[in-house]
Amino acid sequence: MTTQIHYARAGKITPEMKIVAAREKVDPQWLCNEIAEGRIVIPKNHHHHFEPHGIGAGLTTKINANLGTSEKHCNLSEELKKLDIAVKYGAHAIMDLSTGGNLKLILNKILKASPVMVGTVPIYSVATRLLAQGKSIADLTPEELFREIEFQAEAGVDFMTLHCGVTQASVSFLNNDKRVCGIVSRGGAILKRWMLENKKENPLYEQYDRILDICQKHDVTISLGDGLRPGAGSDATDRGQIAELLVLGELVDRAREQGVQVMVEGPGHMPLDQIEMNMKLMKRVCHEAPFYVLGPLTTDSAPGYDHIVGAIGGTVAAIHGADFLCYVTPAEHLCLPNAEDVRNGVIASRIAAHSADVVNKINGARERDYLMSKARRDLDWETMYELALDPEMARKRKIESESSEEDHCTMCGNLCAVKNDKVV
């Protein structure tokens, strides 16, 4: 079967491109050209049926919400509820990162329930099964890993995080530049240990062509994972991070040559003054591939409030080139997020994304803010609720404080500056 990038290079505007162009209010031919060049991707597996979103430069910044069971807490109904909440509040994608329970059943249930693109990290499933069997990471075989990638592609997964840039060479740079937190990526840590104990190269890098064949067949978008991303501000922009990025740039080119859609993942924890440089460096090294970031988290000192920290970093990242923000919840670094954490994480990331879209003059962003300002001037509460990023919260707070029929709020009451400014 053919991928979106194959169609785009042939000049064919697909139904998916038409949907995305209409959503984004952009010219379909421009969108087709950008997909052909690899600057925009439409993650949509042939086997997963939903209305897709595009990710890349010139489009609205997209949001992903991570879900999934853990070894310590496994409740599929809770995860499906979180999925519904994430989509309700504006997530454009979800990732199933489950590591507890019947992983194939969980993935299939999530794929069936999700009206948005679904991503995974296949090595999690393989490692979880190994440990459940009393085996060690060293016992992982490349064939098991590739079977899992193929199973997930056939099941309908739209994008997969694959840590192909964790190689013996990139790890050597990491080892020669001491870190505070070491490797914080689960996939990165698994692969480093496997390479060390087996004295072999990362099979995801060594057999990258096998990945390309699978992804091309099902039109799975590769999300090149940042297995050596910094997990502390002190570790940002070190040799290990940059060494992996250089490998990912090479792999972007190889994916595009094979007609496979690809995006690149980035940090992580990073002081505010390093974000702009990192976004521009990534875009240069990876030839303008769409960039997917976790946060970045601009301080390590706010557990319980990392959704705010991530929104600060995400805004700056998206202004300077990030296209896809992975949400951060208040539970980050502490525990498995609950339903309210998911809601708070999605809303925080949407605020970050919209703030960046305003700066980047993305279609509709400034117009929305203008209409909100006009509604405030007119004391038009219904329009304010409609334009709010979280309409429920806006309406709830206003109604809780006084009658919804009042034209002013309890902050100023009859001293409302807007009302008094209008008095002739």
Please explain how this structure is put together.
Helix 4 (76-88) packs parallel to helix 5 (103-113) and helix 6 packs across helix 7 (142-155). The longest helix has 21 residues, at 339-359. The protein has two domains: 43-359, Radical SAM ThiC family, central domain (TIM Barrel); 365-422, no CATH class. Helix content is 51%, strand content 9%. The protein is α/β, with parallel strands linked by helices and 424 residues long.
Key terms for this structure?
424 residues, alpha/beta, TIM Barrel, 2 domains, 8-stranded parallel barrel, two-stranded antiparallel ribbon, globular
Summarize, please.
The protein has 424 residues and is of the alpha/beta class. Helix content is 51%, strand content 9%. β9, α14 and β10 (324-326) form a beta-alpha-beta unit.
Sequence-ordered SSE layout with sheet pairings:
Elements: H1 4-9, H2 15-24, H3 28-37, E1 40-41, E2 55-56, E3 62-67, H4 76-88, E4 93-96, H5 103-113, E5 117-120, H6 122-132, H7 142-155, E6 159-162, H8 168-175, H9 186-198, H10 203-206, H11 208-218, E7 221-224, H12 239-257, E8 262-266, H13 272-285, E9 291-294, H14 306-319, E10 324-326, H15 339-359, H16 365-377, H17 381-387, H18 391-401, H19 417-422
Parallel strand pairs: 3-4, 3-10, 4-5, 5-6, 6-7, 7-8, 8-9, 9-10
Antiparallel strand pairs: 1-2
Helix pairs in contact: 4-5, 4-15, 6-7, 7-11, 8-12, 13-14, 14-15, 16-17, 17-18
